[in-house]
Design brief:
Distance between the termini: 27 Å
Helix content: 25-40%
Shape: globular
Strand content: 15-25%
Radius of gyration: 21 Å
CATH topology of the largest domain: Rossmann fold
CATH architecture of the largest domain: 3-Layer(aba) Sandwich
Number of helices: 15
Number of strands: 11
CATH superfamily of the largest domain: P-loop containing nucleotide triphosphate hydrolases
Length: 371
Amino acid sequence: MEVGRVMSGLRPGLSPEGEEEVLVIDLACEEDASVEEFLSAGSDFSVTVLLVPDADSAARWQNRGAVVISAAEWIGDEGPPPADAGEGQPRGAKRADGRTPGRQTVVLFSPKGGVGRTTLAVNLAVRARAGLGLETVIVDLDIGGGDVALHLDLTEEPTVVDLAAYGEDVTGDLLREFAATYRPSGLSVLPAPGRPELVELAPWERLAPVVRSCQRIYDLVVVDTPGDPASEMSYRALEEATYILAPVNLDVSAARRLKTALNMMSELSADLPDKVRLVVNRQAEGSPITCRDVEEFIGLEAVVGFPDCSRAAVEAVGSGKPLVLGGGDDRMQQAVDDILEDILSLRVPEDRVSFLTRMLGYVKAWPGRRG
């Protein structure tokens, strides 16, 4: 059962006690029998909320150990987004000009480890899902060493390699069955096994149907890639990208390796360089190298500069709670929001905070809440 299609989880900073965890299940998107089974089994969340489409449904689900809220109460007068808007019609977010954005594939690429590639991929995907309501999946193609699952505290999940075994028979239903759900945001996750011995057994030809199936059914596909710029996996994934995010920190070696990789990229395909968006990470006061130095050396202007959140990022990985979910440094959330707006022309609505505040009103008033 997939949960949290609307929103699940609250940032600790918005919670009355700082620790509240709320799970939201949209009954317009789930089978009644699955919800019945889930409620009977009990939930690890402090509060479970059932979002019902109408008053008749509300009456049926009362006294089931969950808060019951109608769609009108939940999101106001606009009504809930359709459960399935059809291929090519993203749900939820609007561009700044009011138009619905097309489906997007954002690929994270860096030839040097330790520059925040996976951290950026995870936080971007979680924020797009939780902040914008986009149906989002993160795909970890770093088969031998991918850490997406570690960042989200997911263990013993089916991996992208398991799904790739189905070849061209990968369907939307099969994909949703295999994808793990990161409950605090509702993000779909296809983790890598993180086993170097499987790299040769999972070439791009086997993984391409998985990526392309994701592109058909999700609004946003975020892909984390291996660090080797010469690998076919990286190159083919970059070809699938709408945008390529290339993170680099204020380090001479990282900047030089990225510039070399981008030059190689331009020789392989004339189209790839136009997709690249530079992200300068870990900007710290007093650094002998500035963001401007890196921009001039690489020949690209950074779309956003990330502050140095190294300590908070390490703690976030340890807790399995990305920084954009209130992991201790709001600067990461603002920087990710800037990427969503600058690259995808999507702005996280300001009324999202009031939306969560209204949710808290229901939670605080609910007599059955724990704690």
